[in-house]
Prior knowledge:
The complex is a heterodimer. Chain A is an alpha+beta fold.
Amino acid sequence: MCLSIPSKVVSVDREKNTAVVDTMGVKREAGLDLMEEGSVNVDDYVLIHIGFVMNKIDEEDALESLKVYHEILAKLDEEERSRVVLEDDNCENRGAP
Amino acid sequence: MSELKLKDLYDGFRDPATIRMLAAQIGEAAKALHEPLRIMEVCGGHTHTIMKYGLPQVLPDNIDFIHGPGCPVCIMPKERIDHAIALARMDDTILVTLGDMIRVPGSQSSLAVERAAGRDIRPLYTPMDALKIAKEHPDKKVIFFAIGFETTTPMTAALLHAAIAQKVTNLYFHINHVLVPPAIDAIMSDGQAKINAFIGPSHVSVITGAKIYAPLPQKYSTPVVVCGFEPVDVMQGILMAVRQQAEGRAELEIEYSRSVTMEGNVKAQQLIDMYLQPRSHFRWRGIGDIPDSALELKPEFAHLDAEKVFAEVLPTEPIDDHKLCICGTILKGLAKPMECKVFGTACTPNSPLGSCMVSSEGACNAYYRYAGVLG
Lengths: 97, 375
């Protein structure tokens, strides 16, 4: 199941070409290899798939989606939230269409 | 608290009021249809949503779903899984792959069985971990069994790019990346398919751009709507398709505009073009051979191509599914899963005989799991 939870860029490492992103409180590193140089910056909203930033998401849309996710995730403890977010990263259907 | 799964989260998007409102609008719009709308949702993600939420139950009778081949695990022919097993059985080898490829049976075994027997087979969170494993084990051959549609192909290309840049020489690639448009053409081209509208996969389109579907409306006189995976997205996409059909239009529309553009991710496309080229033939489980429907490494990277480097250990015989399996017919919309003689009896998710039962995104698997929905 693909939720496409938007992630917010927390920091960018130009040297390694990676970004640290925050998805509903879960932070992790994602590769920027698929993005144009300099196109991803702190505070941008992005979609992650299998460890890579796939694209940027319009902030208004991202915030709208996040509002719903936050309501749901608020009920989870940290460990569960982390597992749910990481599961979404690997959504098989993105490997599928 | 009982263990929470992503699917439970997903329920948050099943806003009953919105779905009811959309269902009513679809019902109204569908009154103007001259013939039933038979929509193929190409992607397994859509199949899953449609079946899980029982969307057919809230839609009028003149709207029918035909479940497409968009599940990378389902379409992998057994001989390719046998390749992965043969590679994993070589000495000093670590086989790495994504997703639930590990539990899918080949002709005799599965990667899960091989792993239990002591072979070094590792599921990956991200392809980039393959690079880390190759660096940590310079004495081993690390083979990345790459699967997926257009969505995951650029990640494979990025891994290859990084391996070359970092001069990692013990990482090999077994490429099984497939393409959506040729599969649609294969299903539509024999004239038998009963499909007159498409819901296009959104995440593929994030990479490729919606432009890959541009020829379809003209070629087959069908509406094509690219939409997201949430039930509300799917319903909105259906409404757009119904309206097109009712108004006699056949156009490409994007419902999922929050992430999909016409052009897609150009950088990702360039990365793919750098390393991969169309493959003249690829057999799709359940459909058969489709020319130019998959990718392979370009000849200049043959020294990294597991199919070439380890050719002597790879079986070459094509292996078909059980002769009673009617998956190919289901994919064309000519039959429903329940019409198959082995559905739910000899063929179940735990022991799949055919491709549509292999993963939770396959049509038969979705019907089996949500049979209660079907009544």
